[in-house]
Amino acid sequence: MECVRRAGWVFAPERYDTAAATALRRDYYAEVAGRYWGRPATGAEVDSGLAGDGVELLAPPTGQFLVGRAGGPDGPPAACGGVLLLDGAEGLDGSDGLDGQRADGQQAELTRVFIRPAYRGTGGAALLMAALEEAAAGLGVRRLVLNTRLDLVEARRLYARAGYREIPPYGDAPYAEVWFGKELEAPRVPEPAPLPAASP
């Protein structure tokens, strides 16, 4: 996937361990953990939560991690998200996903979807979802699934607005309380050009 430029944002694949990606992942974990605990997460708790979290799978050939920058390619890192292929990814069971279909190489999970608070309400979250779907389609994915918690109401609203609908539970994520899925549109195949008329 190349850079995706939309409405002043640039979304591009980036290694999960760059300074920008790591800072975004830390902010993501601090927010979701802090909301769960009802208090700010400490730095040590963030370190512990990120240790062994499987983020290395968000790189080819098992996935991809995107970083979104507001204002252009040199803008501040403001959003992130990952696409994790569910077929053959270590640590995932390939369990039933969208409409009970088993992972077949065309199903992936969206994970670590996050936009920094200062950039919420700008339209960046919808652009991030579109960029993640484009990245997934580029990996041959036709179905996307994700899970979240009931208390993350903003995330649930975002997914519903992006066309995701609730599906039966899949996998064994310890904090998952609601699951969503979406079929991606099949890639458009250009119509062949008409053959020139035969000369008499």
Gist?
It is built from four helices and eight strands, in the order ββααβββαβαββ.
- Considering DSSP H and I runs of 4 or more, what fraction of the residues is helical? 25-40%
Classify the beta-strand content into a percent band: 15-25%
Tell me the Rg in angstroms.
Answer: 18 Å
Largest sheet: 8 strands, mixed
User: Which class of secondary structure composition applies to the elements?
Assistant: alpha+beta
- What are the low-pLDDT stretches, counting only 5+ consecutive residues below 50? 88-103
What is the overall silhouette? Answer: globular
Distance between the termini: 48 Å
| DSSP helical segment count | 4
The pLDDT mean sits at 87
User: What is the number of strand segments?
Assistant: 8
Series of H and E elements: EEHHEEEHEHEE
Which strands sit side by side, in order, in the main sheet? 1-2-3-4-5-6-8-7
Give structural notes:
Strands 1-2-3-4-5-6-8-7 form an 8-stranded mixed β-sheet, sandwiched between helices. By secondary structure, it is α+β, with helices and mostly antiparallel strands. Residues 88-103 have low confidence and may be disordered. The protein is built from 4 helices and 8 strands, in the order E-E-H-H-E-E-E-H-E-H-E-E. It starts with a strand and ends in a 17-residue tail after the last strand. 26% of the residues lie in helices and 24% in strands. Strand 3 (63-70) and strand 4 (77-85) form a beta hairpin. It has helices spanning 19-37, 43-50, 124-138, 153-161, and strands at residues 4-6, 9-13, 63-70, 77-85, 107-115, 143-148, 165-166, 178-183. It is globular and about 45 Å long.
